[in-house]
Protein 1
Amino acid sequence: MAGFLLRRILGMLIVLLCLLAVTFIIFYVFPANPARDICGKGCTAATVASIDRQLGLNKPLWAQFGQYVSGIFTGRRFGQGSHLVACNFPCFGYSYQDNLPVSTLILQRLPVTASIAVGAAILWLAGGVTIGAVAALKKNTWVDRVVTATSLVGLALPVFLVAIVLLFLLTAKLGVLPDPSYTSIFVNPGAFFTGMIQPWIALAMVYAAVYARFTRAKLIEAMGEQYITTARAKGLRERRTVVHHGLRSAITPVITILGMDFGGLLGGAVIVETVYGLPGIGQLFLQAVDKVDIPVVTGCTLLAGFFVIAANLIVDLVYASLDPRVRLA
Amino acid sequence: MSLTSLGAQEPLDDSQLLLLPAGPGSQSAWRVGWTRFRRDPVALASLIVIGLLIVMAVLAPVLTAINGHPPDAEYQNHLDPLLGGLPSGSVGGVSGSFWFGLEPGTGRDLFSMIVYGARVSLFVSVSATIVTVVVATLMGITAGFFGGWIDTIISRLMDLLLAFPSLIFMIALVAVLPSVPRLLLLIIILSVFGWPYLGRIVRGETMSLREREFVEAARAMGAPVRYTLLRELLPNLLTPIIVTSMLTVPTYITAEAGLSFLGLGIEPPTPSWGSMLANSLNWYATDPWYFIFPGFFLFLAVFSFNMAGDGLQRALDPRGD
């Protein structure tokens, strides 16, 4: 297990380094004048020159990259004159437009995005697996057909379309839910849930359809295995057979796609936050794209990449602990 | 003799395989597939819908000439200023002249906008799919056939691209490359992040085909590599390539609509379904028809490509019924 763990972490670090390199090239080498872009609109020549100096843009590329990577781990100093700011670990850069380190900006927005992502994931996992399991156990009945047809429709519904339809139905037409907004769960749990339920459903819809189809297929496969017949033959109650023997083996591959989907959820969050006007990392990212605030764009991109890579690593580890064959491969 | 009469579930032994008149990729296997596809009502209906959508996109200038409303013409006199620019009349201003009503605020003809939006959506998604298929096939075959360090490099590249948060990167790239024409940029970005999915499938299939007797025979007879790749391997890879590309189109349609929705797709005033849906956010409570029409067409396009792709998969799978 230790060797496996080491190999995986090493692999993750290599991918992370590639991600850093690609991101660095895109944002610091492609633009003709990075300092100008980083500084933003309405910025003086003196500031541009000072950014040029601070980022070492006159140095060779590899030196710039080294400085950029080591800055993430050891921190850097940004700003000018009396406005010198320390950007501590993890330093993803400094927004000259907001005059704040990128990590501070991201941390401010993190609770909103995390609430959207975690809530949606719980909803689609519970919903998708339950619906898929029911369909598998009622295979070829009308229940199964309804689930299959509904999930095919769900698969073809983009997140933003579901979100608008929900807004129209639940907020405008029926008036059962308020316009979605973020309230901290610690301040007012009731407002937190009523404000978040629409973003959760909108994001969870497509994923739940995928998970329902996947769980259905895997459970049907598992229920045909000989160990299920054995379990039944030794007189195990059907419920226990399904939950402990069937579903348990069917759920392992579901964990794999959960990890990957959860890692990529920041992309979905951008859309949901846009529809509902929620002040999360997705909004921060889009506003930064709009203002060409390159350090923030870079920081958010790296964060998203880090999520995907970390999620893959976690999936590998969970998988290895569930299935010994993986460790030996 | 049809493949079905052989008893699909039973594994064939070698002597039976010799009796098969046609392997996958030959003329009659395609005919079997087409016969099965035709008998699948959902798949056939989806194919017809796709055909209609393509005709609609291609004939967009003709269709808007028939109803007499260019997509950028504003019919402000059909809007109600007392209601803040909502179309006059019910159902978003649907009438004999404005088949899908009008865009609130500007008074553009929704039918014309949707027809032109179909152009953008289908052009981007189909072009990107073609690029994807070419790149994925080349890379996948090369990696799978030659193996060794070539395979290692291509496989790592695919892993790396798959590990990237593609939507976030697409948005970021649009931001740093403002000088590249948006249509071209969309096609490139979608293909760059999309090809590894098909590339992996092609690589895997190639690796298993490489070990089969007919490829070995070709090599033993001294066939050049090019011949082996094009005449022996490629025909056998067509089924997974066709099925996967059919299922790639809808993911690109969704991605294009998503980027347009975020204001990063094709630039206005060129209409696109995604940007129409983004604008409809300002009107969803007062004029739901403004999101219902583009939303329905977006759903229809994605749904029918999904269904047709699934149908193709069933029809071309030799293990099917």
Protein 2
Amino acid sequence: MKRQGTTAFLGAVILLSVVVPSRPRTLPGPEPQSSQPSVLVVSVRDLGGSSRVTLSSTVPLPYSFEKRTGALQVTFETPLAFRVRQAAFAGGFVRSVGWSQGRGSYAFTIELASESFSFKPSIREDPFELSIDLGPAPAEAPKPVAAPAPDAPAASGRETPAAPGPGPLPGDQPTRFKTIVIDPGHGGIETGAKGKFGALEKDITLAIGLKLRAIIEKNLAFRVFMTRDKDMDVSLENRSALANNHKADLFISIHANGSPRKNSHGSETYFLSQNATDEESRRLAYLENSSGDLEGRIEGDGRDDIKLILWDLAQASYLKQSSQLAESIQSGLNALLGTANRGVKQAPFKVLTGAACPAVLVETAFISNPEEEKELGTEAFQDSVAQAVYLSLVEYLKLYP
Amino acid sequence: MTKKRKKNPKVLLLAALAVIFVVLVVVYFSGGGGEKIRHETEPSGPGGLSADGEAPTTRTITLFFLSEDDDLLHAEKREVPAGRSVAEDVETAVGELLKGSSGDLVSPFPPETKVRQVFLDEDGTAFVDFSREFAENAAFGASSEMAAVYAVVNTVAVNLKSVKRVSILIEGGERETLGGHIDLSRPLLPQYSLVAK
């Protein structure tokens, strides 16, 4: 098991080192000649039936388009490093805007509400601003926006409102809202890590969690639940129980890191390590079953050992998806935050063990590092974290729509 | 007169019976007590038996701490008195760990933390019971919590081959986590991937 864990860890490291390091660090001001950081701002406006995507930058950029089914890709060829920031997002015809960075280029993928569409770019120099109007293809009569299926339970969930939200999902598959649980770490008397200047992990995780909820609700057809939306104690067991009770599709725990070393810095994303793949759980491996079945089997408080092991197995069956979500979030953080890349890691985090869905824990930055503590307290940084996680989520959803 | 005569043998008989009873009681309890004492002394015999029969007086152990250079665990060797049992060796190792580095490595433990007791089960799990300070006197972040937990687990496992897993207890009881991160509800396996090469 240890060897397996190490291999997985090494694998993740190798994967990351292949994917990530070729990337220039998107720190503010990697260009010594300009005092201002180069920023690429993306905004999306709903024009009623059509949408306008605006990409603006402090420097002019050569661009090219590639039209695909249901998506438009805009590529900027530039050796410069940018920080990408999403300013406003009112979806309409545009479902999402994702982006990726290649060698000397930035590619933005604009996902649209229908497979065929038309687009009309317009350009403004100084400051550079590329606006693209996107709407349904002229031949195709604008489809009535299919109302999202009303089967989603209307209970206490904060459903994304249908009207200003994204259009219908591609294809004719029945719309089912995905459910995401955002878990702001710690809370109440459990403050989490503390900064030198007095910042508390629990406050920062809550601020970021609320921002993430706002972005997701605005842009994705998701039901979003928070394990806490104010400063309060919530046991770790209840956090994953909340996810399971709402049949969550994804669980994202937000944290700020702390270390006895002042120098520790950077961002990392965790998913569960399989400590439980020990003899005792192997003995009970016959109990393994499909996780879908699990929810029906485990009810009430799961305190006894078999239930605990079943919980582990539940999470075990999602390890691959959890690792992919973690990879996606980590690259998102690397791109948007300008923090050091500490990579994707595995650890036996209590809050991840119980969730019967892909689950990750994001360590945004170190509150124990005075510089990062200051960053963590700013709206801008918190916005960037929320944005990075959101964009990563969009990327991840391409793998598991 | 006759009354007296009749009474006397009865009294004597009763007295004799009473004496026999008292003697029996005393013998019974002193015998039991003797057995109890033997029981108490016995376990320390096999428990304290050192593998090679002759107890060496000291042994060199490896302790894990953080370093200022990176976020990995770094080994530090130390000479300690050899214990008479595995549990004793575990207690010594963890005690030394809690004292901190004798070099310039960084301790991830709250300074007031103490080991309360150590015991082992037959399956190779060492239960290390810490004072409440371990969980309560630190505001753990994920990194510091992992460092603290795995400094203990790795230190115990690396020095004592018979220990396969380590379970961390606080004030004699199970605890969910130290500070909201690492699951302590079950024994942990050592993680040598966290150790600097």
Protein 3
Amino acid sequence: MNVLTTSLKNLAAAISSKKVSAREVTEKFLGQSEKWNKKLNAYITMNDQALETATKIDQRIAKGEKVGPLAGVPLAIKDMLCTKGLRTTAGSKILHNFVPPYSATVVERLEKSGAITLGKTNQDEFAMGSSTETSHFGISRNPWNLDYVPGGSSGGSAAAVAAGMATASIGTDTGGSIRQPASFCGIVGVKPTYGRVSRYGIVAFASSLDQAGPFSRTVEDSALVLESICGHDERDSTTAKVPVPQWSASINKSLKGLKVGLPKEYFSDQLEPETRKAVDRAIDAVKKAGAETVEVSIPLTEMAVPIYYLIATSEASSNLARYDGVRFGHRADFSKHPAEDLAEFYCRTRGEGFGSEVKRRIILGTYALSSGYYDAYYKKACQVRRLLRQQFLDVFSKCQVVISPVTTSPAFKIGDRILDPLQMYLNDIYTTSANLTGIPGMSVPAGFSTKGLPIGVQLLSAHFQEQHLFNVGSVIEESLAIKELPSVLQ
Amino acid sequence: MISEEEVDRVAYLARLSLTPAETKELAKQLSSVLGHFEQVSKVDTKGVEPLVTPTDMEAFWRDDKAQIWESPEVATANAPETIGNLFKVPPVVG
Amino acid sequence: MSYNDWEAVIGLEIHAQLLTESKIFSADSTTFGGADNENVTPVSLGMPGTLPVVNRKVIEFAVRTGLALNCNIREKSVFARKNYFYPDLPKGYQISQFDEPICERGHVEYFLDGEIRKVNIERAHLEEDAGKSIHSGDFTLINLNRAGVALLEIVSAPDMRTPQEAAEYARTVRRILRYLNVCDGNLEEGSMRCDCNVSVRKKGDPKLGTKVELKNINSFRFVEKAVEYEIQRQIDCKETGEKITQETRLYDATKNRTFAMRSKEEAHDYRYFPDPDLLPVRLDPAFLTKVRGELPELPLARAQRFQTAFGLPAYDSFVLTAEKSLADYFEIVAKASNNPKAASNWIMGEMLRELNEARLDMEKTPISAQHLADLILMIDSKEISGKMAKDVFLEMWKTSKPPKDIVKSKGMAQITDTSAIEKIVDEVMAANEPAVADYRGGKIKLFGFFVGQVMKASKGQANPEMVNQILQSKLKG
């Protein structure tokens, strides 16, 4: 068993049956992270308590105590999730020194399941980006080719798993921030139904769109992690009171009778042929397992990016108002040039604490909510959102799963798109609809480009129907899973 | 189109200082972005109720029970500046 | 007060701090000790990733109040974010309600100058309080103990025309809030805040004048004074052609003036939008029915009932219904003594005087309602005289003992035994033979002297009517 690349399921079984100790495993992952983080910059902060926690798990196992399903498994956590006593930055200068006195519900639940937090991963600042290039803590690199982006915003979490620096990781997905980096890094990533996973303690980007979810090397592992973090939370009013199924135990690879929808708007000219081929490979695998494909249509697809950015930036402009240098975080240095008034105090602190992409989005969102523009931008976007949701509900009356590309093309080169915001935004065409409509989505590997970059496919299903994603995803990975570490790391 | 003056006005509303170069660039970028987003106006939304939370779920209200959390020291531990356990900011007029 | 051909238009925004144990969206306690920032959690500190969760009781209190104010309770109301920057506003936005408030379109009736008047309520919405800024010249300090405390903002229509109406409306709302037990209505401590919108126009002009908002008013007397001052100021402006600016002015009670707030006047753009962290509040009819069923009888209705059921004068009925505890107390005494007017007299006289002197609320009275009723019954059955009763009352106030025990232990019972009184009368007549002779000689004015002597000899305990009777017959000779 290669500890670094084996599945979470195997690793957890090996640890709880004492074939390997949690401490040994943690040491191995810390070693791999130490070795590669300088190049990949996947982690912002390592958890110096990781070994101690691993030892405690070993002691509990030795005593024959019952341990959780993730006992001893080293996980990486996106720096959007608050970790009590461990610095949490959201990739921003404005939180560069923030040590939360509380943990996100997701983090608490992972700890309860026995997982070990290895460290906090790099990301686009406040999850605003698709390349992990907007982080205050430097860009992360794609383990398959260091000149390429790992995707984003959860680029660090995706790169860490792809590089054997964690068995699985947690990311957040507001418009594709789990699915897109999973696709770029050749691993599995799941954005659950909005309301499945508590947002408590997760730095808010856009409250009605944000959901946390897992990255892992296998579909079953993502199911295992998701089972541990899902469920109603009394600290988040927008978590659904619905049962959490044991998806991992119910994976069914026979797809007989399953209808798979192919939305025609997702296969337009802008889709690059190599990506198209990857999606076709996945469709073939699914057909072989007995599923039937049907063409479906989501006419409002081209509206997804505009309404997504109007809504996400509006919510963000308000969510990020709390970073004001009063109670926590960065404050501009006023010792030499005192602020003349309160407004200057805020403007300077926020002006230097936020990076340019964050400022761009705050201004866009503030504008969309401001007097005279609210109806035409924010409100209009929310109305179109309802119509888009209805189109998806209609689609899911004709099929159970939708297969589509995640992005139009595989990972792009560092620096290639950062200068043109609109082009960067338009990349999110296939992923934003799941967030706008609340439905779950998954990215699962479907082979490589000729340049050797992984390409994933996206699976979507109706609200709370994650089981379909795990079933179809498992079928696709049977033929297309990536089992080895990227060659540069070997 | 969004003018530089408009960018500065909105930046002030959002309490963000911008350099003149940033203002200029943002006016250009946001004009292009909003120009593209204009297409939403074409969608007929007459009588459509805006959607905020995309998943149908039951509201949850908590019981009126007070709980004690940590200490004032913990509450203010991350603050850039304090006096005792109070947050300190520049003088506020009015 | 008359303003010649000017007319004032007044509307009130009343912020009522709701009497919940925890804050509106988080579990921090609402009762503060002395320590700074002791009642905070990551939620009320506005820390990253924290989320609001609605306090069930806050919704119930808002509905209760809305129903008492005759409001329409919305089946669906929405929490919205009001965005602005201020150091005591931790999140950079206040969670409030905007275009879909929980209560709307109600009205309140109140009694002034012998008639019932009405003020329309535009809306009552829920919101969270901000923290406290402590200004200190070179810097400002922020205490967030209060941040997130539940407020219900009751917005009246601009239906009032005089300072007296404004003050009486505010008192009426306070009375209702206290009856409902949703707010303690303490203006001084800020648990109820009255902001007054005042404008002035020519009588008959359908258009409203420029509105000025008055803040920092911490008593009902000051509501009246501040509004009065502001009306005069605005009339002076109008008459001298000075422009009235739409602004917020603070009332200074010591100077009895209003002052414009020294803040940079900038156009506010609060960018209200529905808070995506909270689902809309949906209320089902069963819940409304339940809350409606639990509403107490409200002050005005109760005062009217006291007039019809107990035959009380209007004045008494309003005094006695000013506080629910007072009205409850009166009602027990009135029924148990079967003498409502006496009950009213004792409560409005002796009881309120003692309470005022001791600065106590009705709830804290040392005299139980049943004991006061017993006292009235003893007077009515002539066990004690009215004069003795006052002494007994004071003893009851001091000791909380039943009146019977006090009368017994102090030997204060009225002497109603004919032979006992005859004996005293005989003794007094024997000791004052010259006076008896004078009386019998025609100086009938001396009768009072004899009564006084008998009462003195009986230590005030002899039944005065019997003393009169017996004296009269014995003096005749």
